[in-house]
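Dissemination and training. As part of the outreach component of the grant, students in the summer workshop were shown how a complex can be specified as a set of sequence lines and then modelled as a single object. The example used during the hands-on session is reproduced here so that future cohorts can follow it. Participants entered these lines:
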Amino acid sequence: MSSAKPTGAASGAPVIGPGHSLASVTDQISKIVLSRQTPTGWFIGLGVAMLGVGVLITAIGWLLWWGLGVWGINQPVGWGFAIINFVWWIGIGHAGTLISAILLLLKQEWRTSINRFAEAMTLFAVMCAGVFPLLHVGRPWLAYWLLPYPNTMGMWPQFRSPLLWDVFAVSTYATVSALFWYVGLIPDLATLRDRAKSLVWKRIYGALALGWRGAARHWERYETAYGLLAGLATPLVVSVHTVVSFDFAVSVIPGWHATIMPPYFVAGAIFSGFAMVLTLAIPIRRIFGLEDFITMKHLDNMAKVILATGMIVCYGYAMEAFFAWYSGSPYERYMIVNRMLGPYGWSYWALITCNLLVPQLLWSSAVRRNIAALFAIAIVVNVGMWLERFVIVVTSLHRDYLPSSWGMYYPTVWDWALYIGTIGLFFFLLFLFIRFLPMISIFEMRTLVPATGEEPPKKGLHIAASAGPSGEARRP
Amino acid sequence: MNTPVAIDFGQRLERWRNVAFVVGALGLAASGYAWFSDRTEFTRMWLIAFLYWLAIPLGSLALSMLHYLTGGGWGLAIQRWMQAAMRTLPLLALFFVPIALGMHELYEWTHADVVAKDELLQFKAPYLNSTGFLVRAGVFFAVWIGLAALLGAGAKRFDAGGGEGALVRLRTISGPGLVLYFLAMTFAAIDWAMSIEPHWFSTIYGVVFIIGQGLATLAFTILLSSQAADSAPLKGRLLPVHVHDLGKLMFAFVLLWAYVNYSQFVIIWSANLAEETPWYLKRMHGAWGAVAITLIALHFALPFLVLLSKTVKRNTKLLGGIAAFMLLMRLVDLVWYIGPAFGHGTHAPMHVHWSLATSFVGIGGIWFGVFATQLKNRPLTSLPEPDPHAMAAAHH
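and obtained this result:
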């Protein structure tokens, strides 16, 4: 193949706009944070998101006052919105780690401008996800019983239950994601410290920067730490969603018990996560004028990842349907017939439309270059992946082996309120993040500046950039 | 090795090819004896050997398409090996003939009397029947050979100076091509291997085979690269960075192999359903159980621990040794997957016929001979001429 282009099949569009110098990159990204003039759009967005947080607090308050009866769950559908939304949020979070860690290990330079806010998205999504199982335990103040610790009651958690594995997997994942995000921020926090005008912000950013001076030894340790965290985060992405898939797959419920579940859940997580990154990146680059940093190449590559992971997810659907028949089991067969033609049949076909049919448009490069179309497809995929979890959870539970115990599931207003509330929380945190922290990694973007051909690397000035991550040196 | 005249890998390849043809012919002759003396045992062992050697051309097809779509220096390093392997697919179609002829020895669903007594097999008959099996096999090979031909033509155009246009075309083939490969290989795995135990099913089965093919291909190409590294034309072109990337990929596939197998095991073990557990019960008892433990230790734990080290991944010779070991482990894994299927009951003693060895060597020898011939027809590497600056960068 081409020897001229050893990396990155998607050639053509650049990963950074033309005409940038080291200084202009720093200026343009840091001014979003340091500027005293906040765009009006930001206030409107934050206000709407705060309304959502209000809804969340109300929904939690109501739930704690009355108990789980305010939700629509009952026998036979004992897992309703809580688990659907938990899986949905966790899945969204995975794109952040994938972009940050896996694309870093694969030396995909185009990740650089989107990794920071994708990581922030991971953290916020994991927080939103955590709300649901905590509340679903019924008495969240006793949630520490989930942890194995010697106690006077002589009670231990069930170690064979993947729900307990979830506790470990998700809490480890949240910890490593937070560390990864924070370590990646340190050099930029120092930049903000140096550029902030007010003493208060100087102090705040200064404390967070942990005394970073950009010394060669700092960079060396930074590279090691960042590489190690990337190596740690990578298996965690896979393990978290694998354990989530085990929640279903280790049972004997037709529609849940399938060996394809782990890889298909992991692919689905990446699929939905990239869709969310696109959903956020497209308006953000427009509002803050970041088209030079989040370029068409980024959008194009993300669209391709969505297409690829979407195809894996559809492979999972195909295997489920084929083996429902091939197994010869009447329960398996009924499960798929009920999914397609039962009372929740609409959700299955909506899911197929959202996750199988619509993403096929992304084969066309014209669609991938059309920002409006990309945005619309990203929203459709977000909806589709929510529907997927709805289909898996509800249609499998509501009619299983015994027709006498069949039933329907109807979410209540409080189910919806809690769900909408977490979306509010997610955007609330995201708006705070883009205002107070650099949403694009300044120092990593500076390493891309030589690619613009505007500023030949100079001695001295080059140190900050070249000592930064430049592929080879950073791999563990 | 300090001779100023570089040894030419092509000459060495020619020597290997001649040996391979002789060894292969001897192996096939011995297997031919087995065909007459014990048709059942011959066909069963042939199936395992066939699936083993099929993995490298098919894995090459899939990894080539993946490389066209994602790029990366690792692909350039092994591109010529993969292209030559892809061109051997018609030979594998030929080696499929004994399986088509021996269906009756392999698959109980071809026995009318068994099906007549088995409601489940009657239910599955619209899929599991001899005509469908042969037609599907024809379709699978048509898809694979067709894709290999398209990619081969595209690569040839690129070599002739087709430039960006030829690359775009290769990518256009690769996207849908990967989808087709996935589907064809999944159903091939169901037809050829899973249906030996026609009551059993597992939705991840196709993926397990696909991962195995990727791993086998990486191991084979790494081994070949390590053998070619110190002779022309690879000397000076195959850089530590390429070897490192290939090592990382092999590491990733070792993990993927463990991941899909562990997932399948834990899901079936945990649910403990009578339809599913016999597959593992057969493979966890007696000598087969010892093989299972061996696989965990040597197909996963050992390569996992060794390949964690960056030094190992950048050492061409050492990585080549690990790759050779992984190729052996691939055989053990396939024997463990398919061998116990022929035993009766869940505690059948381990049984492997001697013709496994002769069929393995027979198919492998002829295959390698044809592969080497194909390899010599084109330039031996796509890697660019050594560039002193790049060398310095890669060694830093």
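Residues 366 and 373 of chain A are 10 Å apart (CA to CA). Students were then asked to discuss how this feature might be tested experimentally.
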